[in-house]
Write a structure and sequence with these properties.
With about 160 residues, the protein is an alpha+beta fold. The strands form two sheets. Strands 1-8-9-2-7-5-4 form a seven-stranded antiparallel sheet. The longest helix has 24 residues. The model has no long low-confidence stretch (mean pLDDT about 85).
Length: about 160
């Protein structure tokens, strides 16, 4: 990912993060995918009414699907409103999908959504990561590092 894409991602008005994923997994490789949405789903995402808690991705028949993603029904939607939790198709190249499929066949590897954002063209995109699960001692180490960073930040604020 280049710096230009990173800047656009940070400037996105909507950033729905999966904070638990960084604690639970080591990120091996990251991808950005488009999401196939219907009707009022994009309006709900633009309002920030989505959740990535307990979501994961699967490759089914050569297509990548996200499962467990919740997008709240649009408040102003009529009888055409969407279902909150349904499987949604993700758009990646065949080569990327095949690489992910072969990697997830190994034990301990999975595909986890990390971020949903709106790109410069107004389309919803999702950042995915090929992940390997952390053990309990790895999680303790992550918590310790986070606490140490917080302590250092506090110390730096005192000196300023």
């Amino acid at each position: 990912m280049n710096k230009e894409q990173e800047m656009l991602r940070k400037k996105s008005p909507v950033q729905i993060k999966n904070k638990k994923a960084a604690f639970e997994y080591f990120f091996i490789e990251e991808f950005t995918a488009g999401i196939v949405l219907t009707g009022t789903e994009i309006k709900s995402i633009r309002l920030g009414k989505a959740s990535l808690v307990d979501t994961y991705c699967l490759v089914i028949n050569g297509e990548l699907w996200v499962k467990g993603m919740s997008i709240s029904p649009y408040f102003y939607g009529s009888y055409n409103n969407h279902v909150a939790k349904r499987d949604r198709k993700l758009l990646l190249t065949k080569r990327e999908i095949m690489r992910l499929q072969s990697a997830t066949k190994q034990t301990g590897y999975t595909i986890v959504p990390t971020l949903v954002f709106i790109d410069a063209n107004g389309r919803a995109k999702m950042d995915l990561a090929l992940c390997k699960g952390k053990k309990a001692f790895d999680k303790r180490q992550t918590l310790k590092e986070k606490e140490d960073r917080r302590e250092m930040d506090r110390a730096m604020k005192v000196y300023k």
